[in-house]
């Protein structure tokens, strides 16, 4: 894959950096498959925050969701894309409050198509494509890499076509059915990213670190409870063994 790598924490997402596509004459195409490790990718502003390495530029890529194997794909489905905004930090005009550095996304099923400013000002934070393709245009006019830019997670999904009563997601074939009806690759379940678009793929998930901490606290609480019960029983037993007081005659 051009201008990408496969390191994104422990998730093995393919990262694409808009910085790498600066001022190219041809529109690069990124294929997003509906199954497998290429069914979700990360789109980021730049791979480095070295001010001498980042320069103002404009870049664009097209993301196309495809079904690589029609024989094994779920019948009666179409591929679309979920876009989850996980980070956003770009320059806006301090007085006029308009976008200076911004990301345009063409093909979203939303009135919102331009992203800039901060993540706190972004709502909603998950969007869907109209069809199976999106075009991302990054206008990086300031060249100020002191800002984080953006981090988007894209996940291909299929969904029921019409009211087909026989349609299934294919959970027995390594797929996961989201609460919103999206059918994604099950490998993205509990990966800390919003791949479904409604966070249902992150429901009832246990973080390894929190699981250990919670287990430790549970053990300490249980031990303290056992100790308290033991003390109460010892006090009760001690009282039972004390000689009865002699009543005056």
Automatic annotation (TrEMBL):
<feature type="transmembrane region" description="Helical">
    <location>
        <begin position="215"/>
        <end position="238"/>
    </location>
</feature>
<keyword id="KW-1015">Disulfide bond</keyword>
<keyword id="KW-0472">Membrane</keyword>
<feature type="disulfide bond">
    <location>
        <begin position="178"/>
        <end position="196"/>
    </location>
</feature>
<keyword id="KW-0812">Transmembrane</keyword>
<dbReference type="InterPro" id="IPR023415">
    <property type="entry name" value="LDLR_class-A_CS"/>
</dbReference>
<dbReference type="InterPro" id="IPR036055">
    <property type="entry name" value="LDL_receptor-like_sf"/>
</dbReference>
<dbReference type="InterPro" id="IPR042333">
    <property type="entry name" value="LRAD2/Mig-13-like"/>
</dbReference>
<dbReference type="Pfam" id="PF00057">
    <property type="entry name" value="Ldl_recept_a"/>
</dbReference>
<feature type="disulfide bond">
    <location>
        <begin position="190"/>
        <end position="205"/>
    </location>
</feature>
<dbReference type="InterPro" id="IPR002172">
    <property type="entry name" value="LDrepeatLR_classA_rpt"/>
</dbReference>
<keyword id="KW-1133">Transmembrane helix</keyword>
<protein>
    <submittedName>
        <fullName>Putative conserved plasma membrane protein</fullName>
    </submittedName>
</protein>
């Amino acid at each position: 894959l051009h201008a990408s790598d496969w390191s994104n924490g422990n998730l093995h997402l393919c990262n694409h950096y808009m910085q790498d596509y600066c001022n190219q004459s041809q529109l690069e195409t990124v294929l997003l498959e509906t199954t497998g490790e290429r069914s979700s990718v990360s789109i980021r502003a730049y791979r480095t925050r070295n001010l001498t390495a980042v320069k103002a530029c404009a870049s664009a890529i097209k993301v196309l969701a495809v079904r690589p194997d029609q024989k094994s794909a779920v019948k009666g489905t179409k591929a679309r894309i979920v876009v989850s905004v996980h980070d956003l930090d770009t320059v806006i005009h301090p007085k006029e409050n308009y976008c200076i550095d911004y990301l345009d996304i063409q093909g979203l099923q939303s009135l919102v198509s331009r992203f800039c400013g901060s993540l706190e000002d972004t709502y909603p934070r998950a969007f869907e494509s109209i069809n199976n393709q999106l075009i991302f245009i990054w206008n990086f006019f300031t060249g100020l890499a002191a800002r984080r830019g953006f981090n988007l997670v894209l996940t291909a999904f299929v969904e029921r076509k019409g009211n087909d009563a026989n349609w299934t997601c294919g959970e027995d074939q390594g797929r996961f059915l989201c609460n919103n009806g999206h059918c994604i690759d099950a490998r993205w379940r509990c990966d800390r990213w919003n791949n479904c678009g409604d966070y249902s793929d992150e429901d009832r998930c246990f973080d390894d670190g929190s699981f250990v901490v919670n287990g430790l606290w549970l053990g300490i609480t249980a031990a303290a409870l056992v100790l308290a019960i033991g003390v109460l029983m010892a006090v009760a037993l001690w009282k039972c063994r004390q000689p009865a007081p002699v009543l005056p005659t």
